[in-house]
Amino acid sequence: METIAPNLPPDFAPRQAKALLVHERLCAEYGAPFRFFSSKDPLSELISALLSHRTRNQESHKAYQQLVARFPTWEEVRDAPTEEVQAAINPCTWPEQKAPRIQAVLREISTRCDGPCDLEFLAEVPVTEARAWLESIPGVGPKTSAATLLFSTLRLPAMPVDSHHHRVAQRLALIGPKVGTEAAHALLSELLPPDWSAQEVYDHHEALMFHGQKCCYFSAPACQRCVVLDQCPFGQKRLGGVRSSEPAAAGT
Ligand code: SF4
């Protein structure tokens, strides 16, 4: 896992304790350890993550399958007429934006690596440096970099934060109500033990994501049956206010 910031805020310890308690309960609730769903190489995972931005899984999967069927190598995607790439990824949202972005990312990687590059070298780089390398590519944000490192065959302990995970973390006051998804990556990652394996980091992400999908809905969360209600100021307030001894959340 990434290194914890040296100057921790005073509420860090209680938030970390809460994050670990929530982890335990939600992992038990949803059946961790979870199987990794992907076995893509890191460059393929990066392109898949770029396609998945604000797109349903089924649609981004179809776009990815069409893209690799039309272009057998990433060099061919990089060098193809953009309109052909756009047509191949048509099932995902904003193909007209994603096609040139994907080609620009592939060109940037080729330039940096001085030729074809599958990103396998990132396995030998500390996670923090690997994330920084990826996020310095225009168009690659923290969610994409973490997905590339964790979900791919690299299996490195970098944590993505999707919209479900973000919503659950905000309601639990693990982060403040004004912290956006991008900023949440660093704040939520630093709550996890630095020696956690990729499997533990994956389980944490998946458990919070499942909770957002199966209980902590965007509208009308099912707080009455929530296994972390006693840790959740949002849910307690919704149900009539049980107590309010929560520490102030980071980054408010
Ligand atoms: S108590 Fe309600 S708002 Fe809080 S985590 Fe559970 S379902 Fe979400």
Describe this structure in words.
This protein is mostly helical and 252 residues long. It folds into 2 domains: 12-34 and 161-238, Orthogonal Bundle (Endonuclease Iii, domain 2), CATH 1.10.1670; 42-151, Hypothetical protein, domain 2 (Endonuclease III, domain 1, Orthogonal Bundle), CATH 1.10.340. The protein contains 12 helices and no strands. It has helices spanning 12-30, 42-52, 57-70, 74-79, 82-88, 95-113, 127-135, 142-151, 163-171, 181-189, 198-214, 233-238. Helix 2 (42-52) crosses helix 8. The chain is globular and about 60 Å long. Mean pLDDT is 93; it is low at 243-248. The structure holds iron/sulfur cluster. Iron/sulfur cluster (SF4) is lined by residues 168, 171-172, 215-216, 221-223, 226, 228-229, 232, 234-235.
SSE topology sketch:
Layout: H1 12-30, H2 42-52, H3 57-70, H4 74-79, H5 82-88, H6 95-113, H7 127-135, H8 142-151, H9 163-171, H10 181-189, H11 198-214, H12 233-238
Iron/sulfur cluster binds next to helix 9 and helix 12.
Order of helices and strands: HHHHHHHHHHHH
Number of helices: 12
Shape: globular
Strand content: under 5%
Largest sheet: none
Report the CATH topology name of the largest domain.
Answer: Endonuclease III, domain 1
Terminal Cα span:
24 Å
Q: List low-pLDDT spans.
A: 243-248
How many whole angstroms does the radius of gyration measure?
19 Å
Average predicted local confidence, pLDDT: 93
Q: Give the CATH superfamily of the largest domain.
A: Hypothetical protein, domain 2
Count of individual domains: 2
CATH architecture of the largest domain: Orthogonal Bundle
Class from helix and strand fractions: mainly alpha
InterPro entries: DNA_glycosylase, HhH-GPD_domain, HhH_base_excis_C
Pfam families: HhH-GPD
Organism: Hymenobacter roseosalivarius DSM 11622
Protein name: HhH-GPD family protein
